[in-house]
Amino acid sequence: MILVNSVLTGAVLTGLPTATPSTFETPDVNWAALSPMLIVMGAGLIGMLFEAFLPRGRRHSAQVILAAAGIVVAFVALVVLAVDNRTVTMGGSVVIDGMSLFLIGALLLFGLLGVLTFAEKFGDDRPDAFTPMGASVPGSSYEAAVARAGLATSEVFPLALISLSGMMMFVSAGDLITMFVALEVLSLPLYVLVGLARRRRLLSQEASLKYFLLGAFASAFFLFGAALLYGYAGTTDLAGIAAAIGSPPPGMEPLLIPAILLVLVGLLFKVGAVPFHSWTPDAYQGAPTPVTGFMAAATKAAAFGAMLRFLYVGVESARWDYRYGVAAIAVLTMVVGAVVSVSQTDVKRLLAYSSVAHAGFILVGVLAFSTLGLRGVLFYALAYGLTTIAAFAVVSTVRQNDSEATNLSQWAGLGQRHPVVAGTFAFLLLAFTGIPLTSGFTAKFAAFAPAVESGTLGTVLVVIGVLASAVTAFVYVRIIVLMYFSDTPTDGVTVAEASPLTTAAIAVGTAATLILGVIPGPVLELAERASELLR
Amino acid sequence: MTDLPWLTILMVVPLVGSLVVAILPSAETAKQTALGISLVTLALGVVAAAQFQTGSGEQFQLVEEHSWIPQFGVSYALGVDGIALTLILLALVLTPVCLLAAWNDLEGEAASGRRVQTYFALMLVLVTFMVGVFAATDVFLFYVFFEAMLIPVYFLIGSFGGAHRRYAAIKFLLFSLLGGLIMLVAVIALYFVGPGGSDGFLVSSLTGLDIDASTEKWLFVGFFIAFAIKAPMWPVHTWLPDAASAAKPATAVLLVGVLDKVGTYGMIRFCLQLFPEASAWATPVVITLAVISILYGAMLAIAQTDFMRLIAFTSVSHFGFIVLGIFAMTSVGGGGAALYMVNHGFSTAALFLIVGMLIYRNYGSQQIGDFGGWQRITPGVAGVFLVACLSALSLPGLSTFVSEFLVFVGTYQRYPVAALVALPAVVLASIYALWMYKRSMTGPRPDLGRFVPDLSLREKVVVAPLIIALLGLGFFPKLALDVIDPAVQQTLTHVDVEDVSAPQATSGSER
Question: ipTM of the assembly?
Answer without folding.
Answer: 0.86
